[in-house]
Amino acid sequence: MKKSIVFFCLVLLSVGLYAEDGSRLWLRAETGQNATVTANKQSATINIAKQELESQWKGAPVQLNIINNKDLQKLGKDGYRITGNKLTGISILATTEQGLLYGAYHLLRLQETRSDAGMLNIAESPKYDLRILNHWDNLNRTVERGYAGYSIWRWDQLPEQISPRYKEYARANASIGINATVLNNVNATPDALTPEFFQKVKVIADELRPYHIKVFLSINFSSPKVLGGLENSDPLNKDVRKWWKDKVKEIYNVIPDFGGFLVKANSEGLPGPQDYGRTHADGANMLAEALKPYKGIVMWRAFVYSPSDQDRAKQAFNEFMPLDGKFNDNVIVQVKNGPIDFQPREPFSPLFGAMQKTPLMPELQITQEYLGHSKQLVYLGTQWKEFFESDTYCKGAGSTVAKTTDGTLFPHKLTAIAGVANIGEDANWTGHHFGQSNWYAFGRLAWNHELSAEQIADEWLKMTFTNDVNFLTPVKEIMMDSWEAMVSYMMPLGLHHLFAWHHHYGPEPWCNPPGARPDWLPSYYHKASTFGIGFDRTTTGSNAVSQYFPPLNEIFNNIETCPENLLLWFHHAPWDHQMRGGRILWDELCYKYLLGVNQARGFQKKWDPIENLIDPERFADVQFKLKVQTRDAIWWKDACLLYFQTFSKRPIPFEMERPIHDLEEMKQIQLNLEHHN
Ligand code: GCW
């Protein structure tokens, strides 16, 4: 009797211990190996590399060596070499401790993805120097556009209490090469610059430092006035300049390796240098001057637009191009991938390739603000690859966005890339188990944008779930198709910003609340009329096409050559416009929406048969979310087609599935999803 109770308790305990909540991310290698690992130097970072290998590596002894020779110097300060063989011995060589740490994680990744056999001869160095996450986390722990619970930064408990998550966060980032983080929202409050707050930041910086992750803060441009009590925050006012210098000194006294500032200024109502008739360069350079003695940098965002007659897609370019070459050398301009705002599909921002005398850093959005939040499985590796590989033609064919930013075409002192984090307090970190793949993919592409989206998906699946090919094949297909499927059931053919005003999750192409800013309304973007649909950005329209280099400007300008996946981004096309595949535009639109819905249904079909290949918890979570995804895909299709049909006045092609909802019913849906949270 007693024995059976003990047994029962043991079973309960082991179920409890191994219940799978996704918290271990892609870091699941078995521990307790006791591998032999030696190092020729000691430091907190090298000790981490050592411990990771000791506990997880299953091969012959590993040597970690810091060596300063020419061959290794060529790989830069984060680079490393791995040589040897898992049966006889491995060496990891680098000029720095972080190089050894990245090398150790590389070796473990090879083991976990079953790619560690044979003779290894690997030389790696990252494409971007600074690989940084941007947290849009507020000091009250809400997260703007965050869908994974409250912020992981426990400002309420700091500096006294240290959450174990800080170290786990650092480890996960270091394992994919991320080396910096901005802790607070770009919509920043001056409170982020108080001495009390610096003490909290210091604790986080101390936790992240051994993993070689630098800490940055977003600042509010009005801080000198609001926090310092100065008359204004004019960047040319010498008291303001002094205030910033003193403030920066104060920060470095507490955090000697602080990274610098991220700034959103004169954007969406935030203060900035233009409030005083000054330019973005005046504002950025003032901060750069204050940070310079400490080797800090300024990341100044180009996400600016205001309600005006000028096409929103053109505004950042028009504002920043005249400033090219006017920024100090420790300023880098941070540019979102597209000219509007992280839409499901956008062309690349024309600033890439055009702004040549100023370093630019791409900003990608890992959090799925406009891509299904944490309710939908949308793998973004494919979207980001399209962006990196887009040809700007700035120096002739082959001048990809990647090459304009990674130092290949314009050798600037700084190269960097940012991703808006999707991390929160949820057990699985990102709300959706597959949200983790986007965090992972961002890190891997920031390290090497030449990796394929498929390889990254493959690595992530193997490390996060299983190496079983019966799982990998169908699930990789789901991932690889998921972004394009979502574009199809939300905004095909270059449509954009058809979202509900507050939550950016569901469709509201009709949305028109009284007094709303026109450039925040879907009708500003889709321009549906009885004639046709789409935004005319050709030379006879807003002329946004002219911001691109030839021949791209002509390709976009001509409706016959414009890529069809961007047709309605650049053209207002008649409903009966002849598409290349033979259908007219209206029929093609119907077809695309239906295609997307059918793909979402296909994801469910591919997921269900893998039930026995992974743990029941994650299987069921993802299964449930795929159901929601299909349901909401149908919602998107019906809402958009029924609404656009009021203009096209054409039938849904008879061979296609009919809408199952009514337009009025669709208009009644009010999701209770908070704005900015
Ligand atoms: O996409 C928009 C978001 C805002 C965000 C802004 C920005 C942080 O809807 O929530 O604010 O972009 O990037 O600054």
Q: Could you describe the largest sheet, including whether it forms a barrel? A: 8 strands, parallel, barrel
CATH architecture of the largest domain: Alpha-Beta Barrel
Query: What class do helices, strands and sheet pairing give?
Result: alpha/beta
- Residue stretches low in confidence (pLDDT < 50, at least 5 long) are 11-16
Q: Could you say what the CATH topology of the largest domain is called?
A: TIM Barrel
What distance lies between the first and last C-alpha atoms, to the nearest angstrom? 53 Å
Q: Tags for this entry?
A:
677 residues; alpha/beta; Chitobiase, domain 2; TIM Barrel; Alpha-d-glucuronidase, C-terminal Domain; 4 domains; 5-stranded mixed β-sheet
Report on the structure:
The protein has 677 residues and is an alpha/beta fold. The chain folds into 4 domains: 22-124, Chitobiase/beta-hexosaminidase domain 2-like (Chitobiase, domain 2, 2-Layer Sandwich), CATH 3.30.379; 130-455, TIM Barrel, CATH 3.20.20; 465-533 and 572-677, Alpha-glucuronidase, C-terminal domain (Alpha-d-glucuronidase, C-terminal Domain); 536-570, no CATH class. It is built from 22 helices and 15 strands. It has helices spanning 2-18, 44-56, 70-73, 97-112, 165-175, 195-208, 223-226, 238-254, 280-291, 312-320, 351-354, 381-389, 401-405, 435-447, 453-464, 469-490, 522-526, 552-557, 567-570, 585-607, 616-648, 663-668; strands spanning 37-39, 62-66, 80-85, 89-94, 119-124, 130-134, 180-182, 214-219, 260-263, 297-301, 331-336, 360-365, 416-420, 532-533, 573-574. α12 (381-389) runs antiparallel to α15. 4-O-methyl-beta-D-glucopyranuronic acid (GCW) is lined by residues 136, 144-145, 186-187, 264, 268, 303, 341-342, 369, 676.
